[in-house]
Amino acid sequence: MEVISSTPEMKAWSAARLRDCRTIGFAPTMGYLHDGHVSLLRKARAENDAVVASIFVNPTQFGPNEDLSTYPRDPESDLSKCKEAAVDAVFMPNPTQIYGPDHQTFVEVTEVSKPLCGASRPGHFRGVATVVLKLFNIVKPTSAYFGMKDYQQLRVITTMVRDLDLEVNIVPCPTVREPDGLAMSSRNSYLSPEERKRALCLHEALMAAKALFEFGEKTAAKYLEAMEARIKATPGANPDYIKLTDPRTLEELETVHDGALAVLAVRIGKTRLIDNMVFERS
Ligand code: AMP
């Protein structure tokens, strides 16, 4: 496995693979890898000739009062997980490699970036879209793997790929959860043991909504009531948003249909966690 920190080297590595008409599967990450990240790498491994992971804590997607400086990092463990997943190259650039001193170009996906996390984290998806487009230009993947845990991010990326005619196949990957249902996240490491127990309320709220869907409930307000009740019953849990939306536009629904998305962001103490579930008739 090669560890590459320079942009020209990464470009040359990918160009050499593509010259042999090989496919490159790519999973961009911010590191502190867990089994959710590893599931992306394994899927990329199964579907491509070459696999690239990137590890880059992207400063432009963090707001001024967010956790950029404290974001968890463990490059040694990350590299051993990449090796185990048979990754061929890990791209680990410095922020100065990605953003030169005179960087002035950003990508904005206007509509799907607006609601949900876009409303509470202004500029977040502009930073995400910009870095992902840059990484696509450097790594030149044929397919790129993204987790459905960050559902809105996935919608932002697929919209950017469509609108800018990018030649990369976006592969959505299911959310990997802890045995008790908590969605895996690098930010779970911020939780104290007590908060870790409380964090389960996100998954419980989604399961309460799922039960309503299976019962045939159509009124979105009923789902919101059930989800809010579960969050409010948890000490130290403060909802940022709880919504039922159309999975494509992310616009709020009044009537829940097959394929509807329940999505929420909740602060557990100081840690902001997100989760979602798509309801589908089995
Ligand atoms: P991050 O390092 O948090 O930026 O995540 C990098 C990629 O891993 C994104 O595509 C995430 O959606 C994906 N990811 C993060 N957590 C999970 C999870 N629990 N299950 C599946 N994919 C995940």
Radius of gyration: 19 Å
The low-confidence runs, each spanning 5 or more residues with pLDDT under 50, are none
Strand order of the largest sheet: 1-4-3-2-5-6
User: Structural class, from helix and strand content?
Assistant: alpha/beta
Query: What small ligands are held by the chains?
Result: adenosine monophosphate
Shape: globular
User: Oligomeric state of the chains?
Assistant: single chain
Distance between the termini: 41 Å
- Characterize the largest beta sheet: strand count, sense, and whether it forms a barrel: 6 strands, parallel
Helix content: 25-40%
Mean pLDDT: 98
Question: What order do the SSEs take from the amino end to the carboxyl end, as H and E?
Answer: EHEHEHEHHHEHEHHHEEE
What's the helix and strand layout?
Blueprint: E1 2-4, H1 7-19, E2 24-29, H2 35-47, E3 50-55, H3 75-84, E4 89-91, H4 95-98, H5 117-120, H6 124-139, E5 143-147, H7 151-163, E6 169-173, H8 193-198, H9 201-215, H10 220-232, E7 237-245, E8 261-268, E9 271-278
Parallel strand pairs: 1-4, 2-3, 2-5, 3-4, 5-6
Antiparallel strand pairs: 7-8, 8-9
The structure holds adenosine monophosphate.
Question: How would you describe this protein?
Answer:
With 282 residues, the chain is of the alpha/beta class. It is 38% helix and 19% strand. The strands form two sheets. Strands 1-4-3-2-5-6 form a six-stranded parallel beta sheet, with helices on both faces. It has a three-stranded antiparallel beta sheet with strand order 7-8-9, covered by helices on one side. A hairpin with a 2-residue loop joins strand 8 and strand 9. Helix 6 (124-139) crosses helix 7 (151-163). It is globular. The N and C termini lie far apart (41 Å). The chain binds adenosine monophosphate. Residues 29-30, 36-37, 39-40, 146-147, 149-150, 173, 175-176, 183-186 line the site of adenosine monophosphate.
